[in-house]
Amino acid sequence: MSDAAVTVRPLHEEPFLLEIEAREPGLALPGWVAGRREELRTALDRCGAVLLRGFDVADPQEFGRAARAFSPELLGYLERAATRTEVADKVFTSTELGEDQWIPFHHEMSYSHNWPSLLYFYGDLPAPVGGATPVASERRVFPLIPAEVRERFTRHGVRYVRNYGPDVNESWQEAFQTTDRAEVEAYCRQSGTDFEWTGGDGLRTTSVRQAVARHPRTAETVWFNHAHLFHLSNVEPEVAEILVEEYGEEGLPRNAYYGDGAPIEDEVAELIRSLYREAAVSFTWRRGDVLVVDNFLATHAREPFRGDRRILVAMSDLYTESPAGR
């Protein structure tokens, strides 16, 4: 990318994670992005993630305008897997999980039948200690997954079982952003999700989704699922034991199986998690940073942190998987 207003350098040798830094303070990001949208899309195709640094991004609203300069229609957040707060129009807090916990690498909403193609993260308030958002390249990870594991998942897909309610996980009202059961049922039918109302105000959903996906621009096949993250082995053993004892396996907040219903081996789930950890590329957040991630080509995670931290997220370019895609 040739532009006298910025400095461009790769942060990894693959190339993966490109840094574009403004040379002078005060350069407005929305206008700069709007004039280079196709160049930036090409850079994302090549590098998977782009860090935009040193631009004038004063607040969540300006961040939203910058994201819309990439893609005018930002997305809402249905079928949620974590609690988030909307702080500006289609701009959300990132996952509100305890500061002492890792959030493992994942593709956003890869447990669903549709998902955002592009993610935008904003360093509104970087933590004083820790709190990085590492990314990992599927081009590095996917070839390292053993052929027999890829083949089994590709053939059967992934079965996700989730329970919503006042005593487990989040409520279905929060996850589906409605208090109307009929709306939830319509969404489940439209998305090919089996559902069952349980207890006083509980909901259990079961869906079989893709294990791999095909990039809509580059035509690459990538590993694309939440199996390793939703799998019970992702929980500390003593916590997993308590959950199973209290709720039973079918009542767990979430779990993942092979698409034919067979259990996924603990060592397979851990293999995927370890491959992502080994491929991790990280940077230290600065106030005003914007990280743009191709949700097909890169996974993202969150490190533990200390102190106040607020990283915001926006999403765009909805992709819907056809049943034949699995």
TrEMBL record:
Cofactor section: Fe(2+)
For molecular function, the Gene Ontology terms on record are:
oxidoreductase activity
> GO annotations under biological process?
antibiotic biosynthetic process
Q: Which Gene3D superfamilies match?
A: Clavaminate synthase-like
One Pfam family matching this protein: TauD
Q: Where does the TauD/TfdA-like domain start and stop, copy by copy? A: 11-313
| The protein's name in its UniProt record | TauD/TfdA-like domain-containing protein
Q: Which domain of life is it from?
A: Bacteria
Kindly state which keywords UniProt assigns to this record, in alphabetical order.
Antibiotic biosynthesis, Iron, Oxidoreductase
